[in-house]
Design brief:
The chain folds into three domains: 3-233, Aminohydrolase, N-terminal nucleophile (Ntn) domain (Glutamine Phosphoribosylpyrophosphate, subunit 1, domain 1), CATH 3.60.20; 239-440, Rossmann fold, CATH 3.40.50.10490; 445-580, Rossmann fold. It starts with a strand and ends in an 18-residue tail after the last helix. It has 598 residues and is an alpha/beta fold. α7 (254-265) packs antiparallel against α13, α12 runs antiparallel to α17 and α15 runs parallel beside α17 (559-580). β2 (31-38) and β3 (41-48) form a beta hairpin. It is globular. The relative contact order is 0.09. Strands 3-2-4-1-10-9-11-15 form an eight-stranded antiparallel β-sheet. A seven-stranded antiparallel β-sheet has the order 5-6-7-8-12-13-14. The protein has a five-stranded parallel β-sheet with strand order 19-18-20-21-22, sandwiched between helices. It binds glutamic acid. Glutamic acid binds at residues 1-2, 28, 74-79, 85, 98-101, 121-123.
Amino acid sequence: MCGIVGYTGKRNAKDVLITCLRMLEYRGYDSAGIAVVENNKVRVIKSVGKIDNLEQSVSRYDLSTSTIGIGHTRWATHGKVTLENAHPHKVGKVTLVHNGVIENYKEIDEKLNKYEFKSETDSERVCALIDSFYNGHNEIEAIKKATSLLKGSYALGIIFEGNNKLYGIKKDTPLVLGIGTNEYFLASDISAFLKYTKEYIVLDDNEIVEIGNSFNIYYEDKQIYKKIEYTDYDLEEAMKNGYEHYMLKEINEQIDISRKLYSKYINDDNFSDKLIDFSKYKRIDFIGCGSAYNASLIAKYFIDKYCTNANFYCNSYMASEYRYTNHYFDKDVLTVFVSQSGETADTLASLRMCNSEGVDTVAIVNVLTSTMAREAKYVLPMLAGPEICVATTKGYFSQSYICSLLVLNLMYKTGLIDKDKLLSIFDEFKKLPENIEKVINQDYKKVAKSIYKSEDIYYIGRGIDIYSSFEGSLKLKEISYIHSECIGAGELKHGPIALISKDTPVIALLSEFSVAEKTINNINEAKSRGAYVVTIRKESINVDKKLSDCDIVVPLTNEFIQNLLIIIACQLLSYEVAKLRKCDIDKPRNLSKSVTVE
Ligand code: GLU
């Protein structure tokens, strides 16, 4: 959840740490802190709130000579958001920052009765545990002994008083070593140090890195040598580039991402062999959390509609459920894991469960250095570039695009569509960038003004629009804090219509011609109870002007990507509503981008 950084080199450590932490703020932002070594003493500075507050606190001290330190931006799991609970934690000679959750921290606490703890965190107990094994010069040994007693997940950045080195270790949550010229970085994610270097090494579980004038990596008593990798991620890509919010920038980037996805997965008149061929299997399980789960429902929807038969079917599961239910696995089953970060705890645990069952696994991920990208048998890169806004837009877009391509590939391979049909569908994929531009260029402010004061907003739809509603409604609640539900339009009169009264906004999605008339009947029912109706529809479905108070029209395209145009309209509407409500759009309260805890 939270972000950790470490630095040692020739620059001023506090400046580098703050710069790096800003790039990780998307991972958590309830409090932050740094620890730097000044004249052989460790100085810890923390503050509640975002990195801006930390920067102000830090400016009160003269830390001009420190060139080594660690930093943290927190998303609390153990203990409230207070200064005491903020990281770094210092116990005895050990100071550390921690990302993760230590499940047996209470047991550890009971054994460490010589320590008085200042915080409620699991992390401070880990700090004390390392200190309890430390004799003034056995840093690696102390880390190893302490971590061998931990249950749970951790990425740790550690400094020892009197020793001018930086240490890192991880398990089940990411940690990357950045390698510059005579300077080194530790971070939860490479975007943290992109400003300084593009060279890095991804640490694997229980490897310990020791960084001084150079670095050494150890695994189980031996020094190991790992390949230095290079990222072509661009810092510019990870910055706002003149947009008011990352969210708006990322919505606009969907134009370009659709081009990138097209050229990776489609070769003029056929699918690229980089796409997985589903036709070899009899059952496909999609697994994800949040928006990634919503995207996987798009695949299930089209497979149910066109490909299911007695010998082939597909299901989508919430990873938090999948990992705790029983499944029958054999060589005919393919499991597909969807996660932007590639670190989502429940999805990763499900992937590991499937790997251990020997079943084929695919990861649809954005971060190619992630654990899922390394552990899955096959990887389908999302090509979305760094996504900074906590609420996903381009990530969902890319996942949903890939899901549609996977189904189309299956339909083509199994003869459900012929070459001519395929080529006409590809033409629509080619036109997608210009159609997205048309959707983006519409005015959403006017519609937003008419609904932003409401405390409840309902999404309705049928067919694929139900699944787009899931995502539209989630986007709205994530960033505007308005209570929102999505209701299958046909379900409205089976209960939820009781919630509709005068001026309750109902957003109806209309992209399925075959059920449009039915949805329009449901709009009528809502309207008769006083609803304020917003329709988001494809061009060819007409709605009586009297029924729709605000009408948003997206261009007509092939059904496999029509939902992408509909969802972009929903994203922009949520964005404008949140802006009018003066919400912190890129960093919504209580959320974190990469959910690395259960
Ligand atoms: N468990 C630690 C805390 O609550 C770290 C939180 C995290 O990684 O999200 O402070």
